[in-house]
UniProtKB/TrEMBL annotation:
The keyword Repeat applies. It holds the Pfam family Ank_2. Coiled coil: none annotated. ANK repeats lie at residues 26-58, 59-91, 92-124, 125-157, 158-190, 227-259, 260-292, 293-326, 327-359. This is Ankyrin. Transmembrane segments: none annotated. SMART domains: ANK. PANTHER family: ANKYRIN REPEAT AND PROTEIN KINASE DOMAIN-CONTAINING PROTEIN, ANKYRIN REPEAT-CONTAINING PROTEIN-RELATED. It comes from Hyaloscypha bicolor E. Keywords: ANK repeat, Repeat.
């Protein structure tokens, strides 16, 4: 009844056994349900009946937290006037302000800040209201928080900043705003990733913000994260052509391999990004490179069924058709196992070994049979 705002029914039920603070399976009270769903009359009725203001559910969320999360400013005003704690935290140590900021509820944020909510408080992961708002792309909330003189480069427990979260989310206007307010584009988190690394991987940042984020030292542009990947590697892997162009113009090292021995070119080929591949080859990238698992560019192109890359670049440049990785699988084996008929046909026409077996004794034919790829079975 409280969740639906049915006050007439609620009046009747309040006279029945169970009490005003009866809890359901999630430990939620009627007051919590009324606040979460924005039912003011039901909320007032429950409060007059003595409902516990700061009663929490199994997640530690109280009525004021649920109201903030849902963006019900009126509910919060009533609860606050009755003495609800605006600083209360749930099981993740998130306050009403953090929830409101993360959901983009500007009006709620304004009310809470005006009534003493602490903008510097952070949850158990170290994220404060600014980081949550930036991650969600909530422009107006971020502007309000910055007007409150929040630290622009506040760090969470993984050393990530609001700019880092905005970059991961691909929120271009947010990134520009944070940079204009002095956010540091050269900072890196505990995994070794910079805002630029996160931005290029999201593949949604435009030229303007990419240029702004790349105004750092060449050393920072070439920084490898804990997996060994650079911003160029991430950009190449998602086909972010504009980012690749900007990074190459900045003079980054296009040959840096990650912890698995994969270069930006390898990632571009594996993802089927022909335009990026061409840019990297024009810089002198090596077509015959192989990673630590012994896989070549041809192997990755075959696994992904990249017909155009096969025809335009790899096969016409004399790469080894029967190169074997550490498991002795050939490009034909990968193409057959993936069901890529055209690629398998092209390899066979070029003279690829048809009966090569890997270290488990499986051949291209056995992989095609396992996958139910009848056309390839017929070819083989």
């Amino acid at each position: 009844a409280a969740a639906g705002g049915y006050t007439k029914i609620l009046r009747i039920l309040l006279n029945c056994p169970g009490g005003v603070d009866h809890r359901d399976n999630s430990n939620s009270t009627p007051l919590i349900w009324a606040a979460a769903n924005g039912h003011e009359d039901a909320l007032n009725l429950l409060l007059k009946s003595g409902a516990g203001l700061n009663s929490a559910d199994s997640e530690g969320k109280t009525a004021i937290i649920w109201a903030a999360k849902a963006g019900h400013t009126g509910m919060i005003e009533i609860l606050f006037a009755k003495g609800a704690d605006p600083h209360i935290r749930d099981n993740h140590e998130r306050t009403p302000l953090i929830w409101a900021a993360g959901r983009g509820h500007t009006e709620v944020v304004n009310f809470l800040l005006k009534n003493g909510a602490d903008p510097l408080s952070s949850d158990k992961d170290g994220l404060n209201s600014l980081s949550w708002a930036a991650a969600g792309g909530h422009f107006k909330v971020v502007e309000r928080l910055l007007a409150n003189r929040m630290a622009i480069d506040s760090l969470d427990k993984d050393d990530r900043t609001p700019l880092s979260f905005a970059a991961e989310g691909g929120h271009e206007c947010m990134m520009i705003t944070l940079l204009e307010h002095g956010a540091d584009p050269s900072c890196h988190d505990s995994s070794g990733r910079t805002p630029l690394s996160w931005a290029v991987a999201s593949n949604s940042a435009g030229v303007r913000v990419l240029n702004a984020l790349s105004k750092v030292s060449l050393e920072t542009l070439n920084m490898q994260d804990k997996t060994g990947r650079t911003a160029l590697s991430w950009a190449a892997g998602v086909g972010n052509i504009e980012a690749v162009k900007i990074l190459l113009q900045k003079g980054v090292n296009w040959s840096l391999a990650d912890n698995n021995g994969r270069t930006p070119l390898s990632w571009a080929v594996g993802s089927g990004n022909l335009a990026v591949m061409k840019l990297l080859l024009n810089c002198g990238a090596n077509l015959d490179c192989e990673d630590d698992s012994g896989r070549t560019l041809l192997s990755y192109a075959a696994e992904g069924g990249e017909e155009e890359i096969f025809k335009i670049r790899l096969l016409d440049h004399g790469v080894d058709l029967d190169s074997r990785d550490n498991n002795l699988r050939t490009p034909l084996s990968w193409a057959s196992g993936g069901g890529y008929t055209t690629v398998a046909e092209t390899l066979l026409k070029r003279g690829a070994e048809i009966d090569s077996s890997d270290n488990t004794g499986r051949t291209p034919l056995s992989y095609a049979l396992e996958g139910g790829f009848d056309k390839i079975v017929t070819l083989l």
